[in-house]
Every structure is written in C-alpha cells, then in structure tokens.
Amino acid sequence: MSHPPSKPLVASKSNPLQGRLTVPGDKSISHRALLLGALSLGKTRISGLLEAEDVLNTAKSVSALGAPAAKTGETWEVTGRGVGGLRQPDGPLDFGNSGTGTRLMMGVLAGHDFPAELVGDASLSRRPMARVLDPLKSMGLEVDGDNADRLPLTLRGMADLVPIEYELPVASAQVKSAILLAGLHAAGKTTVIEAEPTRDHTERMLRFFGAEVTATPDEKGRTRITVTGNPVLQGRDVKVPADPSSAAFLIAAAVIVPGSDVAVEGVLVNPTRTGFYLTLCEMGADLTFENEREEGGEPVADIRARHSALKGVSVPPERAPSMIDEYPVLACVAAFAAGDTVMHGLGELRVKESDRLAATAAGLEANGVSTRIEGDTLTVYGGSGNVKGAGTVATHLDHRIAMAFLTMGLASENPVTVDDTAMIATSFPEFVGLMQGLGAILGPAAGASG
Ligand code: S3P
C-alpha cells in the first residue's frame, strides 16, 4: 500500500482552545472486536468502531478470510465463522501501516491450515515480526524463509496448535495478544507471563465473547495469563469507547495553549492506558475526570483539561507500557514545562511506525528545544512556556509524530511545519477538523501547491 505525497501542514500560535467534543473509537479495541467477531459464531455488532485506515485494513482482511465485516447504518457487523473456521484468502492481506493488525492476525492465522501472505507499507515492512513469529512457530506455525522477521511474509498455520507457556521478553500487548489468539486454537491451556502489565483488552474481550481466561500473579510479581483452547465464542454487541491515545493530542493542546478549556467525552480510562494522563497530573496539569462510568466492559470518563503552568518530572520505566504511544506528545508538552522532563525505559519507541525516539528528539531540536538521548532515556529541557518553533518536522510515515508536533505548534512562538500529514488517516482522520473546531490554527504551508 502506498500513500500519495501530501501537502505539509503548519500549526501556528492559537487563541484559547475551547469546546466539548468526542474523539473516534479506540484503535486497539476496534482491531480486537473485528478479529474476535470473525472467530465467533453468529453476528457481532460493533458501535463506535474506529473508521481509520489501520482498522479498515483489519476489516478487509477478516472479510477476505470469509468473515464479512461491513457497516450497516451506524453499526459495523461481522459474520463470524467460529474458532478455526476462516478460509484461505484469494490474495495477500494488506495491513498498510498497522503493526497491531498484522501481529494480532498472525496469532489468528497460526490456527488455520492454509497459506496466507501478509504485506504492508514501507514503515510496516521495516518493523520486527520475529517477536510474534518465534512463539507462534513453537506452537506449530510455519513461516516461509529462514529468520523471517519482516513483511512481506507467507504463513501457514495448523488446526491443532501446541499450547505453550511463554514469558514475554518485551512488554508488548501485541505479542501477548497474538499468543492468546493462537491459544484459542490449541488443545489445552496456553499461558503468557508478563513482568509489566500491558493493555488487557484482548483478555477482557475474550472473556466477553465466552472464552476462559485467567490472570493470576505469581511469586515473582509477574502476571500469568492463561487461555483455554477450543472455546465456542459467541458473537456479541461491542461498544468501542473513545481512544485515549487520540484524546491525548487535544488534552495536550489545551494544557499548553494559554486560556484553554477543553473536555473530551467518554474516553477509555482503563488503567493499562492512562500513564500519559497520570504524568500530566504530576507535571501540574489541571485535569479532571468527570462522570466516570463503565461502558462495554471498560471504564470511561469525560476528561477536562485547562491551560496549566507545568513542571518537569521523571517518568519511571515501568510506566512505559501504559503510555507507549503518548511519548511523542508528552515530549512536546514537556518542552513547555519549567525544568527537565526525563523519560526512562523508551527502548520500544525505536520499533514503532518510525524510530519515535529519534524522530521526537529531532523534531524538538528543529524547533529550538534541547534534548538528550542516553540509552533508552530521553530528556527534554523545558522552556517554561516558551518554545521557539519555526522548524520543519520529518514524520517518517508516523501518524503520532505528525500529530504531536502539530499540537506543539499551537503554542510555539513561531509556526511549526510538519512535512507529511497523510499518515494521520491511519488512526485519527478527524484530527485536523476537531482541532480547528476548538480554535486551533492549522493550515497548508504558504506557497504549498496541490
Ligand atoms: C497495541 C500495543 C502497543 C501500541 C500499539 C497498539 C495493541 O504496541 O504501541 O499502538 O493494540 O496491542 P506493543 O504491544 O508492540 O508495544
């Protein structure tokens, strides 16, 4: 899949941002709802599904595997085929930019005895897949090529996988989820052991669809997550809450643009996802969590943010899994704080849609913000409310780099230019329009054509 070259966008110093709004559905939960719908019997109806490129590619893939996913009215409907009931696709499955769609689908394909080719864009084709394929191979998956670690790849699964017990070498919900999904197709119990909690949407949703999943602490303080194979999953109605990783940009903008007051409604506040909000509070941000409630088995709240004077903080490494996608925007917020913000344990940022550690530091430096990378630690030297701006940021096909720096530009002294905004459509197509609706000044670069 390729993207047309896009016009750069420029973010300029804005007047106070004001408004109350919602953001689209959570990306992680949307992928999982489609996949579990495909593995269930009967219909799964999904409201609030994120209609962004990454998730739409997963919808196309489950359809190509014989479990049609389509929108009727406001709701997406998946016609499931049951565990192990998918069929060979006619052509390659194209996951575009999406690591989550790819890696979760690898777990599903592991339980099916037919060949399937997986392809993706330039960014996805650079990302490591062995972290998922190695445990799946030990369950019985065959992968073409020796040491195959990058797309394009052809996989061939088998109907009766061998259950395994696997300790995650990296804190990754994608790896955990792929193994649990494969475990559905294994006779017996498949266990994943995680040292640090990662997002638990797969576990929650598997239970909701009828699988037996347990999570128990062990003597070393780790969590053992076990799924029992060959369950009968039943199609369910799923309501997808608003994505906290998308809301993060609007909340960040409100915190750094003087005079702002913004509320985002119905945001997922599952504790495995809220590290960014916790960190903002520690920095002194005026955030309130209102109307806390449960929707579709997940906790949600309306999050209100007002402009705040911020101070630098130290973010501990064990918090990384709960805010792994929010470090670029946190680093941009930290540029406005008084004092240094030191973020530890960021090694995984190097293997996201881009090398986010390098891209974040480069974007800040290009806009007059000093940074330092030492091992897996990023330090941002805050400017006490002042960021020079005037730089151009290279996004490297990474949606979150694009949105983080457009957010930063709304409070910088001079405009911030982002070289390519096409990838924003992979996760948050409404981003520019919603920001503009709050009063943000975002527009094409002067003299940009066509
Ligand atoms: C995701 C897990 C995270 C995150 C990604 C979504 C998921 O990746 O970065 O955007 O839905 O499981 P890792 O599990 O590889 O850290």
Strand content: 25-35%
The level 1 CATH classification of the largest domain is: Alpha Beta
Strand order of the largest sheet: 22-23-1-24
* Domain count: 2
CATH superfamily of the largest domain: Enolpyruvate transferase domain
Q: Which percent bin holds the helix content? A: 25-40%
Keywords, separated by commas or semicolons:
binds shikimate-3-phosphate; alpha/beta; globular; 450 residues; four-stranded mixed beta sheet; UDP-n-acetylglucosamine1-carboxyvinyl-transferase, Chain
Give the SSE map:
Elements lengths: L8 E4 L5 E4 L5 H12 L2 E7 L5 H12 L4 E4 L2 E7 L11 E2 L4 H11 L5 E5 L10 H10 L2 E2 L9 E4 L8 E3 L5 H11 L5 E6 L6 H9 L3 E5 L5 E6 L8 E3 L4 H13 L4 E8 L6 H8 L3 E10 L2 E9 L7 E2 L11 H8 L5 E4 L12 H11 L4 E4 L2 E5 L10 E2 L5 H11 L6 E3 L12 H8 L2 E4 L6
Parallel strand pairs: 2-15, 3-14, 6-7, 10-11, 18-19, 22-23
Antiparallel strand pairs: 1-23, 1-24, 3-5, 4-5, 7-9, 8-9, 11-13, 12-13, 15-17, 16-17, 19-21, 20-21
Helix pairs in contact: 1-2, 1-3, 1-6, 2-3, 3-5, 4-5, 7-11, 9-10, 9-11
The structure holds shikimate-3-phosphate (S3P).
Question: In short, what is this structure?
Answer:
The chain is of the alpha/beta class. It has helices spanning 27-38, 53-64, 99-109, 130-139, 173-183, 201-209, 244-256, 275-282, 327-334, 356-366, 399-409, 431-438; strands at residues 9-12, 18-21, 41-47, 69-72, 75-81, 93-94, 115-119, 142-143, 153-156, 165-167, 189-194, 213-217, 223-228, 237-239, 261-268, 286-295, 298-306, 314-315, 340-343, 371-374, 377-381, 392-393, 416-418, 441-444. Shikimate-3-phosphate is lined by residues 28, 100, 172-174, 177, 198-199, 324-325, 348.
